[in-house]
Design goal:
With about 325 residues, this protein is α/β, with parallel strands linked by helices. The protein has one domain: Alpha-Beta Barrel (TIM Barrel), CATH 3.20.20.70. Helices cover about 30% and strands about 10% of the residues. The protein contains ten helices and eight strands.
Amino acid sequence: MTTPVPAFDARLRSEGLAPLRRGPVTTLQVNVGLRCDLACHHCHVEAGPKRREALDAEGAGHVLRVLAESPDTTTLDLTGGAPELNPEFRRLVIGARRLGRRVIDRCNLTVLFQPGQEDTAEFLAEQGVDVIASLPCYTADNVDAQRGKDVFRRSIEGLQRLNALGYGGPSGPRLHLVYNPQGASLPPPQAELEADYRTRLAADFGIRFDGLLTITNMPIKRFARQLHREGEYEAYLSLLVSHFNPAAVPDLMCRETLSVAWDGSLYDCDFNQALGLPRPVAGSLADLKSLSDLEGQPIRVGEHCFGCTAGAGSSCGGALLA
């Protein structure tokens, strides 16, 4: 019999950590659209080639306006789907870089070989955009099983192309890889796995990178349905609950990141966005003046938040604890 899963907010209260509130917003994370050339099993936003939802020109203008009026927000984090497929992607990159902000492109690597994207890698390098690239393993079988046929080969070619442009080198833009487990398990220790990645990718393909980010799979959307099909959903939730680590709570990404959907609606994190759980304080990007206005506001939580606080913790920036 599976132990019932307690509510996340109740667990926070029992640890003396409630209520969870926002600190200063240092990162504006924008999902610019759900179109993607891949349809990965673990994708919590259910992106794919047939999705057409996308941030429009007006929305992109609001992103840059809010960024300009929020000097303490140092990073624009662009995600999707494959963010590069949005026609406003380059405008956002150029505008944010002119404002002196760090820009992150969450790149699936295979998009670099799509029609119309032939010069995207060069554009990213010229603009000094940091790339966070998904590579859930250093072997072809595991990657293709999770992301699709022949994805590993194209991903390796994408990494080699980025390396040739200076990514992963001593003076080039930063290149981080992302690992997430294939099934109902927690990621292994980040530092140990990073060492394995470095050894294998350098020896097999001559690839260099700056760091590896381990991310826990959230029990939502496609992954949740997979867990239900395999009869592992409750067991996985219980695994997350039993590995709750209160030390991870102060560094949760929802405390310093604001998540913006393609339609301008605001969420406390990318996972709440995927679930359609808006912030407790209503509003949209068009109505927002400065991100500093959000400091101290409450954060909406749910059972999936156990994924961010299990073990070493998890965020879009990798493990929260060494």
